[in-house]
User: Fold these one by one.
Assistant:
Number 1:
Amino acid sequence: MKKVVIKTKKNTNSVSEYLSGIESPKRREECRWVMKVMKEAVGVKPVMWGNDIVGFGDTIYTRSNGAVGEWFKIGFSSRKNALTLYLLAYGLAKNPLLKKLGKHKLGVGCL
C-alpha cells in the first residue's frame, strides 16, 4: 500500500498558545468549549496538527485508491471566517440532525 504524504502533521506546538492567539474573544471561548467536548468524547489530550488544527486521538485511514494515511479522530480549527470541525465522518450529510444546526457548510470530512 502507498502511504499518503500529508503536509499537516502532528507536532509538539502548544495548544494553549494556539488558543490564546485567537484574536476574537468569542471565537476563543467557542474553541475552548469545543476542545472540552472533544476531549471528553475521545478521552485523550489534544495535540496540534500543523499550525492551526487541534486534534484528538490518532487513526489510520485508507483512501479509495488504497493509499494509507495518519490523521486524528476528531479536531477543530479557528479559520478566518468560521470554526471548522474535523470529524472524519463520511456520510454525515445524510444525518437529519444537521438541519437543526443552522447555517453551515459541509466538506468531505469537515463541518
Note: The chain has a mean pLDDT of 83.
Number 2:
Amino acid sequence: MKFPTFWIRLQNASGTIAARGWSDLSLDEATRHAEDRLQRILAALRNKKTLDLDRYSYVIDNVICEDVIDRIFDGDRELAVVSRNAYGSLILNASQMMFVDIDFPRPVRQGWIKRWFGKKEPPLPSPDIAILARLREWHATHPGFTMRVYRTAAGIRLIVVNKVYERVDEQATRVMQELGSDALYMQLCKSQACFRARLSPKPWRIGIAYPPKRFPFGDEAIRQAFSDWEQRYVELAKSFKVCIYLETLGAAPVHPDNQGLIQLHDELCCNERDLTLA
C-alpha cells in the first residue's frame, strides 16, 4: 500500500497555485518533491499546456494524497489503513481483501415531446435486481468465490471474503472487471496498491459541503477550519449509513486475515437502525 509518512503543501508567490510533495524518509525530501512539482506546474502553465490541476494536486506521482487516520496490523503485517479522502469521507484500504464497487447505470428518461403529449413512462426496473441476477450468474460459474453483497446509495458493494490478493495485479483486475467494477474505482485501487471501501457518508448526501481545505494543511488556522467542518460532518453522519448487507454468495469459509476487517467494515458501514443510505 502507498501511504507516505510525510506530506507537505507549497504555494507560488501569489498563492494561486499549490503543489504537494510526499516522502517516506523525511519532511525535507517531501519539501524538495513539492518544490519540483510546483516548478513543473508553473512551467506547464507558462507554456499554455492543459493541466487537470485538481487531479494534479490529489494524485501525486501515482500516489493519492490522503491523511492516514489509523493503521491496522497483524504482527508485522499491515492489513489495512484507514484514510480520509479528498471530500472528507473515511476510506478502508485493505492490502489483501478485495472490495468491488459496482455503480448503478444512470436511468434514461423520455424526451419532453412524449411527456408533453401525456404518454407515461413505464416504471424503471430496480437496478439492484438486474445486478444481483448478473452476480449470481457469475458466481454459478465461479463457485470458488465467497462474496458478501451490500447495497449502497448508488450501487452494489462486494467483499471477496475467502481469498486474499497479494497485489492489485492483472488477475485481480480481471475479476473486478468481470464483476462490473467501476473503472475509476479500479484506477484508485491500482494507484494505492490496495482495495478501497468508503466507511462514512459522502458529504453532499448528508447536507454538508466539501471540506474547506484539503490535506496536507498548511498552518494551524487551516487545520482548525477543517476540524470545525469535521465536527459538523461527524454529527450529521450519525443519521446515515453507507450500506446494507444483502446476502452471501458461496459457502467457502472466510479467510482468517479477512475476518477482523469484515467485522470493522460492517460495524462502521451497516448500522442496524433504519437509516438513509449516503
Note: The mean pLDDT is 90.
Number 3:
Amino acid sequence: MHDVLVIGGGPGGYAAAIRAAQLGGRVALIEAADLGGTCVNRGCIPSKVWMRAAYLKYWMVRAGEFGLKSEYKGLDIKVLVERKNEVGMDIRAGMKALLQKNGVELITGHGVFKNSREVVVDKKTCAAKKIIIATGSSLAVPEMKGLTEALMTSDQFFNLEDLPSSVLVVGDGPIEVELASMLANFDVETTLVAPGRRILPEEDRETSQRLGQALREQGLTIVTDTVIQSVEKSGSRFKAVMGEKILEADRILVGSRGSNTDGLGLEQAGIETGDDGTVRVNDRLETSVKGVYAIGDVAGGWMLSHAASAMGVTASENAMGSDTIFRSDLVPRGLWTNPEAAAVGLTEEQAERAGYEVEVGDFPYPVNGLAMLRGQVDGGVKVISDAKNREILGVHIVGAGATEIIGEAVMALQLECTAEELAHTIRLHPTFSECMMDAGRDLEGWALYLPPK
C-alpha cells in the first residue's frame, strides 16, 4: 500500500508527489497522458513561447526608435511550433527524471475511484492511505448554434500551420485576453468579444482600463456587453450573430476551461462536487472524504499552475501529518500580454465590499525612468491598504516586468507589510520595481515624483 497516491501529473500533481516523497512517503503518481498536464502541453509553456515571439516581433518593428535598422519579414510558424514542442519535451523529460530520483512510482493509465482508499488503473487496483486528486481541467466549449465548423480551440491554436487573417476571440478572462493580444501583435485582424462590461471582470477596474487601452492602441478591437448567439457560414468565412450586430472572421477562438471530474468515479468514493463540477475542499484542501485531497484546476478557484503547485505542497504536507491552511489570498495572477499585468490580494471594489476603509496609492509607468528610456510607458502600479492599520490588502500592476515584480507584492502581503514599510524600502535605479516603492509613498501621502495631491 502507498502512503500517498496522486491522480494527475500536471504541475499540482507533480509537486504533490515529490513533496510527499521528500517527507518519507511511499508515493505513486497516476497519469493518463503526458506529464505536465495543461500547463506544459497546452497552456502556460506553449502560450509563453508564442507570446515571446509576438513580443520580439513588436520590438523588431520599433527598433528604429533606438537607432537600429531592422526589418520584420514575417513569421515562420513551423519553427515557432518546433520550438514550443522542444521546450515541452525538455520539461517533461526533466519531470520524469525528478520523479524517478525521488522514488515516485509513475503509473500510466486512467485512474478511477473504487472507493475512498482504492483507485483502479486499467483493471489494476492501487491502494493508498491518502489520495490527492490533481486531474486538472479541459476545454469547455460553449453551446452555440453553428460554432463547430468555425471553432478553433486554445488546444489547437498552438499547433497551427498558418495564422488565419481574422479571428473572433470569445471571452473576457486572462486566457482569452492573452490570446487576443498575441494575435493582434502578429497583425491578425482580431476582435475580443467580451460578455461583460469590461475585460478581466475579476480584476481591479484600473487594471482592466489600463490594459484595455494599451491593447486597443496595438490594434486589438474589444467589444463588450456582447454575446454571440449563433454562427453562420459566409463563403470561406463565418458570421457571428450578436443580436442586430454581425461580425465576420475566418475562425472563432474559444479558450474557456472546466474541471476534469468526469469518469473519475467520485461518487463511488463519496466525494462531493459543487454545482460547477469542481471538487469541494476545505482550507486544508481536504475533500468531503477524510484522507482524500483535491488541488489545482479540479478544485476550481483561479485555475493557475502555480496555484496548483502550491496546493500540491500543502495537500502533501497535510497528507503526511501536518495541519496547514492553504492561503488562497496569496495566489498571484498574471498575464503575459504586452504590457504585462499582474495582481495579488483584493481589488479596490472587493476591499470596499469587505468593509475596509480603503486608501489607494498609485504610480504611473510614464514617470518611471526605466520605462521612459525603454519606451515601455504603458501602465502603472496600484497599491490598496486598510486606512486603519495601514496593512496592504492588494497590489495591481500593469506594465513591463509586472509578472516578476508581483512576487515581492506576494511577500509583502504574506509578511503583513504596511504602507509605511513599503514606502521606506529601497530599490535599484533605474528599475520597474521602483514603481512599487513609489506607489507606497503615494499611499503614505509623500510621493517624491508626482505632483502634490
Note: DSSP finds 15 helices and 22 strands in the chain.
